[in-house]
Amino acid sequence: MRRSMFTSLSLCSKAAGLLLTAGMGRSAASMAPLFALAVSALVAAGSPSVAQSQTAPMPENAHARSYGGGWDCDRSFRRDGDACLAVIVPENAYATNRTYGAGWECLHGFQEVDDMICREVVVPDGGYLDPSGKSWSCLRGYMEVDDLCLEIVLPPNAFLANSSFGSVWLCDRGFEVDGETCAAIAVPENAFLNGSSFGQPWTCERGYFERDGTCEAVIIPKNAYFDDRGFGPGWKCNRGFATSDGGCTEIDLPENAHLDRSGNRWECHRNFQRSQGRCVLND
């Protein structure tokens, strides 16, 4: 459109120039044919612009846009060149009445296949149709195998797991997985089940420590107390006593010394240093 306007202006300018050049020194009567020629050139130049400004006619099943120029197809129709063709809705589908997409969607319980048809979702025994209406899942107590939902067979002393991954069943308390069964856990005397899902399933009672799969009593020497840390002999000397030959011996503090933070060793006062079991003054 803009290009045709510039062409028209150029032709008009040329026509005016010719008219002025030819009119020099001539009478009004002799100028009449030249004026007619100029007007004809102007009309000829303006005609393409007028033709180009005209838009193509609106096709059937279309409507003018609410703003701007042009047109859009009505609902359930799609544009194909300068025409509006009807959207063909397959069986078991419904028209979306949207201006984008295929123009249809499958009904609940049907799945789109190859963008052409809607095939029914076949739910196997032990399964249910998902809320989306396009697929299925297995009920609790069943597991998906290919296109089937197979019932989970629980061994004795087992229960269904709630996790969606890993084992589908777990053993009851007091039992552990042994292949495809649940075997009773052998808890030694003076021990209890700890409920741990990994490692040893039992723990020795307080006052006992594990040794070779059994729980042995901790023998606490004189001037000591039970220590429930997971390492060491299971006991600790009282403050002022030190471990010696499997027992606790009283600490003999040298002059200018005191018990350290643990209470089971000694160290020299400030400005003194240890030397041959004594505390000597720093030089």
Describe this structure in words.
The structure is a single chain. The protein is an alpha+beta fold. The chain folds into 4 domains: 2-53; 62-152, no CATH class; 153-185, no CATH class; 188-281, no CATH class. Helix content is 17%, strand content 35%. It has helices at residues 2-23, 28-53; strands spanning 62-64, 71-73, 77-80, 83-86, 93-95, 104-106, 110-113, 117-120, 127-129, 136-138, 142-145, 148-151, 158-160, 169-171, 175-178, 181-184, 191-193, 202-204, 208-211, 214-217, 224-226, 235-237, 241-244, 247-250, 257-259, 266-268, 272-275, 278-281. Strands 1-2 form a two-stranded antiparallel ribbon. The chain has a two-stranded antiparallel sheet with strand order 3-4. Strand 9 (127-129) and strand 10 form a beta hairpin. Helix 1 runs antiparallel to helix 2 (28-53). The longest helix has 26 residues, at 28-53. 5% of the residues are buried. Mean pLDDT is 82; it is low at 1-13, 15-25, 27-32 and 34-54.
Q: Average pLDDT value?
A: 82
Share of β-strand residues: 25-35%
Number of domains: 4
Biggest β-sheet: strands ordered side by side in the sheet = 1-2
Count of helical stretches: 2
Counting DSSP E segments of at least 2 residues, the number of strands comes to: 28
Major sheet size, sense and barrel closure: 2 strands, antiparallel
Order of helical and strand elements:
HHEEEEEEEEEEEEEEEEEEEEEEEEEEEE
How far is the N terminus from the C terminus? 108 Å
State the helical fraction: 10-25%
Summarize the structure.
The protein has 283 residues and is an alpha+beta fold. It contains 2 helices and 28 strands.
